[in-house]
Write a structure and sequence with these properties.
Blueprint lengths: L1 E10 H4 L19 H16 L18 E5 L2 H15 L6 H4 L1 H16 L4 E7 L3 E10 L15
């Protein structure tokens, strides 16, 4: 088992495009349904894995482009350290003073480490100044506990 990290920042309006953050339904529309439904299904099926937007379900980061992976570690301690570094880096830009609170921020990496040790994923989000958004994720891989069928993005 190992852990991949992901980071996304961008305009809040883009982050709010939830249709691009949902994987396509596992079954395509039935034969004979309206052509616009078939077309929309094809668009989502093609766009979702290629989009850099954070998925609504954290495990689906594993189907995003390999270039989305910011780091990979076999050990939850190192993954939590990456998270701690990113929190330190971005905290001055957090829109909320409460989110910038150092004691609160110090608890997040330890909590993330515990979740990774249990095989869970970690997803954090913060509003930044200029209505922007920061998404940070740590995803357990090989296999993912919630989505065992998802492949490792770094597999040959």
């Amino acid at each position: 088992m190992h852990h991949h990290s992901y980071l996304w920042t961008g305009p809040k309006a883009r982050f709010d495009q939830e249709a691009l953050r949902r994987p396509p339904h596992p079954e395509p529309p039935p034969a004979g349904c309206r052509p616009e439904l078939v077309q929309r299904y094809r668009e989502v099926a093609a766009e979702f894995p290629a989009s850099d937007l954070p998925p609504l379900e954290t495990a689906y980061w594993l189907v995003k482009p390999r270039s989305s992976v910011r780091g990979t570690w076999p050990d939850p301690e190192a993954a939590a350290a990456w998270l701690s570094d990113r929190l330190t880096e971005y905290a001055p830009r957090f829109a909320s003073g409460a989110q910038r609170d150092g004691s609160r921020l110090a608890t997040l990496p330890a909590s993330a480490r515990e979740r990774l040790l249990s095989g869970d994923d970690v997803s954090l989000g913060f509003y930044l100044e200029r209505p922007s958004y920061l998404s940070l994720a740590l995803v357990t891989c090989s296999p993912n506990r919630r989505r065992r069928g998802l492949p490792c993005p770094l597999a040959p």
